[in-house]
Amino acid sequence: MAKELPERQRKVLDCIQEYVSDRGFPPTVREIGDAIGVNSTSLVSYYLKRLEERGHITREPSMSRAIQLNTPSQGEDVSVTVNDRDLISIPVHGVIAAGEPIMAESLEASAETVEINRALFGRDISGLFALKVQGTSMIDALINDGDTVVLKHQDRVENGQMAAIWLDDEGETTLKKVYYEGKQVRLQPANPTMPPIYASANNVRVQGKVVLVIRQLG
């Protein structure tokens, strides 16, 4: 129960619940610190880690606003009403593998879209697209089979960032964390049972960086 938490952890959890109820998406670490009067982001991260250990939240520390509540506010479901003008429709471009790479035909654009609150992306909402995830290679990054990832078109990411990758020679695509290692690129799964994929840097094409994960519940 939230009321049994230490005071600071309870304030952090209350802050997340109120923020999600008001805006429809979670706060950043800095926004939590501002709300509870804590200047240290490391200290806020510590409180989040303890809440995660207690099962109140799940999160992906390497991604902004990647906090998911596991406990609804005051024993009720968290529901948010969003005006149509606050929503953007993002096209779903098919399926991407979180496992072994899959053939490119699965990335054909479809008529399906997902509607997301535009506030999640700030002012720049250009170049956004979505892909449905197939496989379990990214489960430790809180991405499961059947989830949807929203990406932003770009052809380069920083080391450790998650991206949709096109492998030229194989004509295949995969979802992995990217690490540039000299003349090769390591495509790292977030699943300890699966090995990384190594590819020539000339064979790797970044299609977009993951900016949001939509969980498939049930």
Describe the structure using short key phrases.
single chain, 218 residues, Arc Repressor Mutant, subunit A, Umud Fragment, subunit A, two-stranded antiparallel ribbon, 17% helix
Describe this structure in words.
- By secondary structure, the chain is an alpha+beta fold.
- The chain has two domains: 2-74, Winged helix-like DNA-binding domain superfamily/Winged helix DNA-binding domain (Arc Repressor Mutant, subunit A, Orthogonal Bundle), CATH 1.10.10; 87-214, Umud Fragment, subunit A (Ribbon), CATH 2.10.109.
- The chain is 17% helix and 33% strand.
- It has three helices and twelve strands, in the order αααββββββββββββ.
- Strands 3, 4, 5, 6, 7, 8, 9, 10, 11 and 12 form a ten-stranded mixed beta sheet that branches. Strands 1-2 form a two-stranded antiparallel ribbon.
- The longest helix has 17 residues, at 7-23.
- The radius of gyration is 18 Å and the shape is globular.
Sheet/helix structural class: alpha+beta
The number of helical segments is 3
Q: How far apart are the first and last residues' alpha carbons, in Å?
A: 23 Å
What is the CATH homologous superfamily assignment of the largest domain? Umud Fragment, subunit A
Average pLDDT figure: 80
According to CATH, the fold-level topology of the largest domain is: Umud Fragment, subunit A
CATH architecture of the largest domain: Ribbon
Q: Label the overall shape.
A: globular
- Give the CATH level 1 class of the largest domain: Mainly Beta
